[in-house]
Amino acid sequence: MTAEVARAGSIARTPPTTRAVVTGIGILAPTGLGAEEHWAATLRGECAIRPLTRFDPSRYWARLAGEVRVFDPSAYLSGKLVTQTDRMTQMTLAATDWAFADSGAPPDNGDGYSRTVVTGATAGGYEFGQRELEKLWHQGPDFVSTYQSFAWFYAVNTGQISIRHGIRGSGAVVVSEQAGGLDAIGQARRQLRSGARLTVSGAIDSSLCPWAWVAHQACGTLSTRTDPATAYLPFDREVNGHVVGEGGAMLILEDDDSVRTRRTEAYGEIAGYAATFDSRDPAREPGLRRAAELAIDDAGLGPADIDVVFADAAGTATADSAEAAALATIFGRHGIPVTAPKTMTGRLYAGGGSLDVATALLAIRDQVIPPTVNVRDLPQEYGLDLVRDEPRAARLRAALVLARGRGGFNSAIVVTEFA
Amino acid sequence: MRELTLEELVVIMRENMGDEYTAPHGTELLDMEFTALGYDSLALLEMLAHVKRKYGIAVSDDEVEGIQTPRVFLEKINAAAGN
Fold first, then answer.
1. Which of A193, A249, A303, A388 counts the highest number of beta carbons within 10 A?
2. Same structural domain for residues A167 and A193?
3. Among candidate residues A262, A290, A305, the one where a domain is terminated
4. A311 and A173 share a domain?
5. What is the pLDDT of residues A330-347, one digit of tens each?
6. What is the residue range of A154's domain?
7. Strand, helix or coil at A269?
């Protein structure tokens, strides 16, 4: 009996030695449309935080955002899809198309069951929902679009990607606030280890509408400043909260066998992943350090093997000092280069973690650490080697990416070269 | 009340499908299946809601399953309108 079960298990599961290799990247962010545009702007240190234009913010005290200003959904999607979807879905579908094209993976060959999707999301289709609520109140229930039934939903991007690319394997969404962009990729790695041959993963969020803005302001961690150069200053003594942005990144991940068989170029590997949750007891150390250590260990590495950290960079004194302390404990004071390119985009919620993973892979490809911008007054007591203003050339084999979500989520991913 | 015409239905269908609308315009459209034309059950619900808003004719959502072609769509609408 035991043997039967064991045999059944061994048939159903690919050994956990399966490696999750990133073969395609699609970026849609305030810094650019497409991975190369984003990467070039990031290396130039161009801050894309600007006055909010999507709606009139004069009645709100938070007036800056990292907007994607040039995205026209109808250039990428049919009129039917544009009608049926929120902006965050439109951006997700465009970025996923780019990631697929970049990966060179053959389109759906009828074996859709071996392909899966797992996305992260924090708000769902908020702007679509607001529009339909406006119709409900101003015109009546008969005017509410039937597409509201799915357009608002957290899992809608996963569903739309599946439909568009003929993917019939498992579909999932991870909702863990701003840690979700890493958790989705961690889950994608599990799916590959469970036998999937290709997984679409990542996150793109957008909630730049008045209804969402009320919620953003209420969270208590938004910057009150109106100068883009001083609004979001993580780790700075003049820290003042964060700026909200939109966008993120979508990745194509394949198991290492598929990659070798296809003889395709790969950006790197999702080598380690871990997530922890903070204790309710504020006297206990937050879970970020343990998440980072577990992810490094999960990658089969030690702290000395990590070459750069992409920080969560929350932008509050408490959270920044906790992150600096965690990094000093793991790597030693000034023991590792740390960067926060999200100072150029604002925080993209679930999209932020995925964008950092994509940016870390580009950093490994080009052997250069992208800079943190705007931060001037770095407290000595943090012990941070923060890469500021200019990119820094370095031998990069492995990068640690950190993300924290409101409510106690901590997640960490280690990306490495794939050889 | 006067009958909803095929031409009026085509206008509604086109609004629902945007630039993807490629169905024929003549009477051959009457017996083509909505699913073959790219309209799923939600799209049909949306079109029924459209008819209700524009013409004040209400067909129960429960009837959607029975509406497979534009001909049946028009029959249901016009029956509900008392024609």
1. A249
2. yes
3. A262
4. no
5. 999 999 999 999 999 999
6. 20-262
7. strand
pLDDT band, residue B17 (cuts 50/70/90): confident
Same domain, A186 and A164: yes
Per-residue pLDDT tens over the stretch A250-287: 999 999 999 999 888 899 999 999 999 999 998 999 99
- Identify residues of A whose CB sits under 8 angstroms from chain B CBs: 78-80, 82-83, 142-143, 145-147, 149
Residue-wise pLDDT for A302-333, tens only, equals 999 999 999 999 999 999 999 999 999 999 99
Can you give the CATH number for the domain in which A384 is found? 3.40.47.10
Q: Burial letters for A226-238: b for 16+ Cβ neighbours within 10 Å, e otherwise?
A: eebeebbbbbbee
| A349/A255 same-domain check | no
* Overall number of domains in chain A: 2
Q: Which of A332, A325, A310 is nearest to A398 (CA)?
A: A310
Alpha-carbon distance of A121 to B54, in angstroms, equals: 36
Give residue B59's domain range. 6-17+33-80
Task: Measure the CA–CA gap between A157 and A150, rounded to whole angstroms.
Answer: 10
**DSSP state, residue A372:** B
Query: Last residue of some domain: A262, A283, A306?
Result: A262
Neighbours of B19 (CB within 10 A): 11
- pLDDT band of residue A13 (cuts 50, 70, 90) is very low
Rounded to an integer, what distance in angstroms lies between the CA atom of residue B44 and that of residue B73?
Answer: 9
Bridge partners (DSSP) of residue A385 are A337
A94: pLDDT strictly greater than 60: yes
Mutate to test the interface with A, among B42, B60, B61 (most CBs of A within 10 A): B42
The answer to whether the CB of A20 falls within 8 A of the CB of A192 is: yes
Size of interface A-B (CB pairs under 8 A): 29
Verify whether the Cβ–Cβ distance B45 to A146 is below 8 Å. yes
What is the structure's pLDDT at B16?
78
Q: How far apart are CA A171 and CA A121, in angstroms?
A: 14
Same domain, A153 and A292: no
* pLDDT: which is higher, B27 or A351: A351
pTM for the full model? 0.93
> For residue B47, what is the nearest residue in chain A, using CA coordinates?
A146
Residue A53 domain-assigned?
yes
One domain, residues A212 and A321: no
3-class DSSP state of A147? coil
What tens digit of pLDDT does each residue of A281-296 get?
Answer: 989 999 999 999 999 9
CB of B52 less than 8 A from some CB of A: yes
